Amino acid sequence: MGMDSLILFSLFALFLPLAGFVVLIFFGNRLPREGDWVATGAVAVSFVLSLIIMFSKLATPDSVTATWAWVQMGNVPVLGGLTIELGILIDNLSSIMLVVVTLISLLVHVYSMGYMQGDSRYGRYFAYLGFFTFSMLGIVITHNLLMMYMFWELVGLSSYLLIGHYYEKKSASNAAIKAFVVNRIGDAGMFIGIMILFVHFATFSFDAIFGAVAAGDLPFASQAWLTAAGVLIFCGAIGKSAQFPLHVWLPDAMEGPTPVSALIHAATMVAAGVFLVARMFPILTADALLVIAYIGAATALLAATVAITQYDIKKVLAWSTISQLGYMILALGVGAYAAGFMHLVTHAAFKAGLFLGSGAVIYAMHAALHKQHDHQTDAQDIRNMGGLRGKMPVTYWTFLIFTLAISGIPLTSGFLSKDEILAGTLAFSTLNGHFLLPLTAFLVAGMTAFYMFRLVILTFHGKPSDKDRLSIIREAPGVMTVPLIVLATLSLFFFYSFNPLGASSGWLYQALERPASVVPEAIGPIAASVLYQAVSSVHTLVMILSIVIAVSGLAFAWLVYEKRSISADKMAAAMGPLYRGSYNKWYFDEMYQAVIVNGTLALTHISNWFDNRIIDGIVNGAATVTQGISKISGWIDYMFIDGLVNFLANFTGAIGMRLRKIQTGKVQNYLVFAVFGFLVIVFFFMAI
Amino acid sequence: MVFPEWLAEPGLNHFLVVSAILFSLGLLAVISRRNIIMVLMGIELILNSANLNFVAFSRYGALSLEGHMIALFVIIIAAAEAAIALAIALNIYNRFGSVDVEQISELKE
Amino acid sequence: MDLFAIAFYVFAILIVGSAALMVFSKNIVHSAFALMFTLAGVAVFYALLHAGFVAVTQLLVYVGGILVLLLFGVMLTTRGSFMDVKTRSVNLLPSTFFVAIVGGLLIFVFVSTDWILLPLTEDQVSLPGLGELLMTDFMLPFQVAGVLLLLSIIGAVLMAVRKKTLKPGTQ
Question: Hey, what domains does chain B have and what are their CATH numbers?
C-alpha cells in the first residue's frame, strides 16, 4: 500500500460522512426512508477505509503526512512571511482513533434505524450524525492545531444540534445550550494556548512545534510559558472531556436521544479531549502533566461518588463516563500514555454498548408504558424497572458483559486497560510520592464495580416494580441488538491482547508506544523507561489488588441490592450529608448558578444601581441647571431671535411658493434640470 | 477618390465621437420617452458609451488592461441593474397600472 | 483605406443608425431590436480595439441577457398584444435640441483635448493576463461584484414575488 493511497483513503473516510450530511440536508425528505441508508452507507465505507488505513499503517513504523498550503501571507508584522497549512497526519494514534470513531458511529447509525423509527426529524437526525462523524474524524487526522481547533468547534456545534434534537422539550434545548456554553469556556483557554504557541513558532503544525521545542526553542524562551501553553490547551480537553470543574454539561446532555449519548458522550466527542492530550503529550512539561493527573483523579472520584446515588439509568452511565474519562486523563497525566489511550479504545466499545443497552431498555419501557397508556411513569428511572432479565435476554447478557468490562473483571477488555492505568499510577507515586493519585484510582475502581452492579441488579434482577408492565415488555428489534452483540464481542480481552492478564504484550499496547517528550529534561516527565520499570515491579501487586477491589465492589452491590442483607436506605441515612451531597451531584450546578450566574446578575444590578443613582443624579443635576439657564435664554429667544427667524421664514416661504411650480414630480424633468446644471458648470469652466 | 487624412485612419477620437453620439442618443431616450422600459434602454445605451470610452482609452490611451477590467465590471453591474430595474418596473406596473413615467408623479406630494 | 477603417465606418454607421432608430421609433419592440444591433455593433468595436474578451462578454450579457430581460419587461407591462405597443415621446423637439448641445459639447471636449497616447499592442492583451489581474489587483471588486449580483438576484426575486405571498389564502 503506497503512502499516497493512504492519504487518499483518509480523505475519503473524512469526507464521505460530510457528503452524506449534504445529501440528507438537501434531499433527505425525497429519499426513501428519509435517506438513513445514505448516511449509514457513507459511514460504513468510511469504516472499511479506516480499517484498511489502520492495518496498513500498523504494518510500518513511519507516519504519513500530507500538507496543502492554505493561506499564504506575504509579510505579517512581527512574524514575517507566513504560510498556513492544512494537512493530514496518519500515525498509529490517529489510525486507531479513526477505526474507533467510524466503528462506533456505524453501530450507532444501525442502532438508530430502530431506536429513532417514527421520529418526526428522522432524516435530519441522520444528517447530523454524519456531520458529527465528519467533525470528529477531522480532529483525529489533522496534523496541525488550527485545523484541530476548527474541527473541535464543529464537534461542539454538531453535539449542540444532536443534544437539542428534541428541542420542543425545554430541558433538551437548555441542555444543548449548556453543553455549548460550558465547552466554550474550555475552548477559550485552548485558543489562548494555541495562540501562545503560534505567536512564538509562527506555525500550527505539531511536527514543526515539537521539532522547535526539541531543538531548545521554548515559547518566549521560558519554561513557564511552555507549561502555561500546555495547561491552557488542556483546558479544551477539560471542556470536551467533561473534566472537573467543567463536567456539569455531560449529565444534562443525556436529554439527547440515547444513541447520541452512546456516540458523543461515551465514545467519541468526550474522547476528543483525551486524544488532544495524547497528541500534545510531547510538549507537556512535568508540571502541566501533574495538573492534568490531579484534575483527572479529582474528576474520577467526584463522578464516581455521584454515580452511586443516581436513579436515572442514563444519568448513572453519564457520571460513570465522566469518571472513566477522569481515569484516562489521570493515566496520561502520570505518563502511562499507552494505558490511558488504550482505556479510551476499550471504554469506547463497552460504554457505547452500555448506552445502547440502556437505550434498548428505555425503548422497551416506552413501548410497554405506551401500551398501558401510562404517561406518568419515568421510563428511565431504574426504580420502575426490575426483573427485565427474562424478557430481554440479549440486552441483559450484553449489558452484563459491558458491566464486567467497566468494573475491570478479568477476561474483559476493561480489565486490561484499567489494570495498566492502576499500575502506571502506582508506579508514578512510588517514583515521586504523589500517593493520593493511586489511592483515588483504587477507590474509584471499587466504586465503579459497586455502582455498575447496582445498576444491573436494579434494572434486570429483583422483583419487577409492576407485574403487568413486565409481562408486556418485549426485547428490542434486531437492528438494535446486533450492535449490542458486536460491541459485547469487542469488550472481550482477545481483541486487544492474547494474554488475558496483561495488555503490555498485546498489539494495541505495542502500537501506542509513548512518544518521546521534547521538553528539556529538567522539566520533562519521568522517562518512559524508568516508568515502565517501576510499572513492571508493581504490576503483579496491582493486578491482585484490582481484582480484589473490583470483586469486593461487585459483592457489596450484590449483598445490598440482590440479597438485601444490608439495607441501602439505612446506609444512606448513616452517611447523612455525604449521601445528600452525592445525590445532588455535590451541588455543582447550584454553586455555578449561585456564584457565576447570580454573580453576573448581581454585577448587573450593581451597575444598574450605579447608573440610576450616580450617573442619573449627575445628569439630572445638570439638567436642572440647564433648565434654569434655558428659561432665561428662552425669553431672549422669544423676544429677539424669533422676530428675525419669522421674517426669514416668511421670506423663504414666499420664494418657495414661486419656485414650487418647478417641482412637477416628474423624474424626467428633474433629469433635464440636472443635465442643464451640468452644462452650465461645464460652460463656466470652459469660459475660464 | 481622395480621403482626408484624419478620415482614413480611425484613432482614439473617432471612437470617442461615436461614444459621444451614443451617449447623447441614450440621454435623449431617457429624458424624452414616456415608457419606463424605453428609459431603461436609454440607460443601457449610456452605459455602453461609457464602456466604449474605457476600452478605447485602454487601446490608445494610458489606461492599459485596467480599462478592460473596468468595462467588465460595468457590464456586471449593468446586468444587476437591469434585473433590479425590471423588478421595480413590474412593481410600478402592479401599483399604478401603467409604466408611463409622466403619470408617476408621487414625488410631487 | 485599410480593412480596419472600413470596418470602423461600417459599424459606426450601424451603431449610430440603429441607436437613432431605437430612440425615435414609436414601436417599443422595434426599439428593442434596434438596440440589439447597437449592442452587437459595440461588441464589434470592442473586438476592433483588441478587447476580445470584453466583446464576447458584451454579446453574452447584453445581447443574450439584458435585451431578453428588457423584452420580458415589455411583455409583462403591457396589456393586449405587445407587438404593437406605441409609446409617446414628450417634448421631443426641445429635448432633441438640448441633447444636441450636450453631444456637441462632448464631441468638442473629446476632440480638443490632447490625450496622452500609449497604444496597446495586441500581444499585450491576453486572457490569462486578464484573469491574473482579476485575481490580484481586482480581487476586492471581483468579490464585491459577486456579492452585488447575489443581492440583486435576491432583491429582484423578492420584489417580483412579494405581492403574491401577501395575498391571503395563497399559502
Answer: 12-103 (1.10.287.3510)
